């Protein structure tokens, strides 16, 4: 089986980062059909929180498939799904304890927007430049990490307005962290003043740490300021924790790093160890306004997803995965800082826990998207999978398993070192 054969039946709309045809995976590694081994620092774009083929997840899924795959959550109820909701509710901040399960992050985004409008009886939504929330019509309407995602899809869902995220490239040059925070909050207020009055605005949707936009960590004052504005105006605060949540930052939920509890939270990617799963999570009070029949889905909340999700949480608890994220995340960040000190084209190292990225720029200040692509190409030649990020494509994100070990980090850093050296010579 070759990629050329594969392309005959696959729409080009689905962009492919490599031409690899992979048949199995284990931990931090993948093997192609010809038996070649690759170090995977993408992990399904932060989906495989416990690496490929985690034995506990595989066992749970296999046993559940032998009992029941699905009978539609609209028709019946499943013990595994109920138990998963209970377990996540015990961990979730505030009163976030009511769930709607679906299959992917974009579905969760759509659900959160519908829920916010149903509860508030308002239509306006404020999202942020640099954001990524999915590719369905609803989720792409609140996405602004790159104009290519919106190409030829106008008109979008109405009532969406974009504000500034407090990243370096969106705020006036020379601003420090707190100045960027104030600037971004003022931009939200300008939307309230000039475009969407607070009493017409249902929600502010924000990634507590931007993912596709570059693994940008905002100041605490920014998210705390959004919380204050929402409380003042009766606007709901939605946190997209699809990539940043579920342990990736070293806390179970990214919101915990900022001391802010949202009204609605979306989850996805990592929650079921590789099985398609996502969720809209809110308070019982808010969920009560989402009356029967106002939302639905055929496969969401299926018992296989529930079983996998429980296995993930068991592994988190018994192996203290969050402590590993904090420990190995600090180590990985220190190794990336070493590369930054060694190579001038690396201009930033940022992130929390194991949600880390490097930024590359040319000596004259131009964004180094081409440098990133050189590094990715060289890494693939050395049998390592990597992924870019950032509005200008000049970021490289690290999405190792959350149970990654130091030897795997060292292996990846050694490869990156060689690849950055090649890119440095081109600058």
TrEMBL record:
InterPro entries: Aminotrans_3, Aminotrans_3_PPA_site, Class-III_PLP-dep_AT, PyrdxlP-dep_Trfase, PyrdxlP-dep_Trfase_major, PyrdxlP-dep_Trfase_small. Pathway: Amino-acid degradation; 4-aminobutanoate degradation. Coiled coil: none annotated. It is an enzyme of class 2 (transferase). It catalyses: 4-aminobutanoate + 2-oxoglutarate = succinate semialdehyde + L-glutamate; (S)-3-amino-2-methylpropanoate + 2-oxoglutarate = 2-methyl-3-oxopropanoate + L-glutamate. It holds the Pfam family Aminotran_3. GO terms for molecular function: (S)-3-amino-2-methylpropionate transaminase activity; 4-aminobutyrate:2-oxoglutarate transaminase activity; identical protein binding; pyridoxal phosphate binding. Keywords: Aminotransferase, Pyridoxal phosphate, Transferase. Its EC number is 2.6.1.19, 2.6.1.22. Its cofactor is pyridoxal 5'-phosphate. The keyword Magnesium does not apply. PANTHER family: ACETYLORNITHINE AMINOTRANSFERASE, MITOCHONDRIAL, AMINOTRANSFERASE CLASS III. NCBIfam families: PRK08117.1. Belongs to the class-III pyridoxal-phosphate-dependent aminotransferase family. This is (S)-3-amino-2-methylpropionate transaminase. It comes from Bifidobacterium avesanii. The lineage of its organism: Bacteria, Bacillati, Actinomycetota, Actinomycetes, Bifidobacteriales.
């Amino acid at each position: 089986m070759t990629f050329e054969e594969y392309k005959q039946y696959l729409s080009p709309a689905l962009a492919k980062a490599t031409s690899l045809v992979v048949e199995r995976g284990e931990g931090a590694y993948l093997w192609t059909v010809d038996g070649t081994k690759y170090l995977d620092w993408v992990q399904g774009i932060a989906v495989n929180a416990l690496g490929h083929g985690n034995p506990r997840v595989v066992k749970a899924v296999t046993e559940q498939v032998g009992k029941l795959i699905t009978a539609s959550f609209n028709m019946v109820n499943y013990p595994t799904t109920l138990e998963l909701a209970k377990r996540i509710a015990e961990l979730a901040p505030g009163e976030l304890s009511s769930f709607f399960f679906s299959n992917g992050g974009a579905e969760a985004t759509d659900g959160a927007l519908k829920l916010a409008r149903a509860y508030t009886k308002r239509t306006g939504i404020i999202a942020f430049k640099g954001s990524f929330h999915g590719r369905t019509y609803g989720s792409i309407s609140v996405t602004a990490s790159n104009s290519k995602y919106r190409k030829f899809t106008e008109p979008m869902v109405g009532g969406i307005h974009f504000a500034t995220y407090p990243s370096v490239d969106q705020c006036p040059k020379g601003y420090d962290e707190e100045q960027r925070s104030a600037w971004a909050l003022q931009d939200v207020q300008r939307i309230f003043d000039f475009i969407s009055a607070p009493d017409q605005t249902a929600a502010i949707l924000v990634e507590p740490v931007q993912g596709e936009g570059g693994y940008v960590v905002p100041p605490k004052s920014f998210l705390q300021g959004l919380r204050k504005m929402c409380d003042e105006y009766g606007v709901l605060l939605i946190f997209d924790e699809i990539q940043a949540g579920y342990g990736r930052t070293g806390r179970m939920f990214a919101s915990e790093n900022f001391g802010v509890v949202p009204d609605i939270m979306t989850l996805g990617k990592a929650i079921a160890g590789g099985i398609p799963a996502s969720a809209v999570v809110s308070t019982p009070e808010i969920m009560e306004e989402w009356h029967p029949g106002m939302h639905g889905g055929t496969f969401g909340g299926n018992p296989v997803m529930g079983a996998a999700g429980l296995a993930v949480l068991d592994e988190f608890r018994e192996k203290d995965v969050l402590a590993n994220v904090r420990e190995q995340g600090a180590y990985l960040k220190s190794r990336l800082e070493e590369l930054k000190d060694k190579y001038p084209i690396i201009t930033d190292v940022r992130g929390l826990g194991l949600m880390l990225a490097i930024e590359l720029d040319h000596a004259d200040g131009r964004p180094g998207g081409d440098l990133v692509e050189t590094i990715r190409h060289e890494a693939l030649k050395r049998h390592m999978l990597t992924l870019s990020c950032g509005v200008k494509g000049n970021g490289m994100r690290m999405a190792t398993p959350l149970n990654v070990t130091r030897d795997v980090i060292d292996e990846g850093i050694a490869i990156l070192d060689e690849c950055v050296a090649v890119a440095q010579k081109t600058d």
